[in-house]
Structure to design on (205 residues):
């Protein structure tokens, strides 16, 4: 079950299990999570749960909603994301595994858009041959309990693989076409459109 960990000055104030389809955050006492801070709007943000996914949405707040230090309007929450509202930090924790993420992220190669510059190819398992387009600035695979991989695009257009493990290790690698890595026993290969040798997706069995 997913949960929210509300923190202030690095101290945990409460842990809230996500059991409903909507959670409101703000300064008002009737919000599901009340955050008494003048910089936080009366009704600041909302988390909406759709099947296995949790979406954070800023509800026209005055000072904005931040996730991992980036200003967001709407954001799909991933395990380990840190929501910042005023002086409060709220950590999102989820046990959602790679299987659920693959259902959401992966596409059959026949559905591949010619506009995709880079993607991951699934090399084994039930989704062999499927692709994960790297169209967003950040793609998260796995969770922090089992081992988590983040693929991020730098301002220079490079794709960086960052590892988050249970020991809080952080290892960064600039990806090149043909590079492979493993998450929860599933192998992935990084592909770039410009590299013909690595840009033709394998047909699923």
């Amino acid at each position: 079950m997913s949960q929210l960990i509300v923190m202030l000055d690095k101290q945990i104030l409460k842990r809230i299990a996500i059991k409903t389809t909507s959670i409101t955050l703000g300064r008002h006492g009737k919000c599901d999570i009340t955050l008494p801070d003048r910089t936080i709007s009366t009704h600041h943000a909302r988390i909406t749960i759709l099947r296995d996914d949790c979406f954070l949405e800023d509800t026209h707040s005055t000072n904005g909603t931040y996730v991992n230090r980036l200003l967001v309007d709407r954001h799909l929450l991933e395990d380990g994301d840190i929501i910042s509202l005023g002086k409060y930090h709220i950590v999102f924790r989820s046990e959602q595994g790679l299987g659920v993420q693959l259902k959401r992220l992966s596409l059959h190669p026949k559905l591949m858009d010619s506009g995709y510059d880079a993607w991951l190819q699934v090399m084994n398992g039930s989704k062999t041959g499927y692709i994960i387009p790297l169209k967003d600035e950040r793609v998260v695979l796995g969770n922090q309990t089992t081992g988590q991989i983040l693929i991020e695009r730098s301002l220079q257009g490079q794709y960086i693989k960052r590892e988050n493990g249970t020991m809080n290790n952080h290892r960064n690698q600039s990806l090149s076409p043909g590079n492979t890595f493993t998450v929860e026993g599933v192998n992935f290969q990084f592909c770039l459109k410009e590299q013909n040798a690595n840009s033709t997706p394998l047909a699923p069995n």
Summary: The first helix runs from residue 98 to 105. The CA atoms of residues 39 and 190 lie 42 Å apart. The two ends are 33 Å apart (CA to CA). The first strand starts at residue 3 and ends at 8.
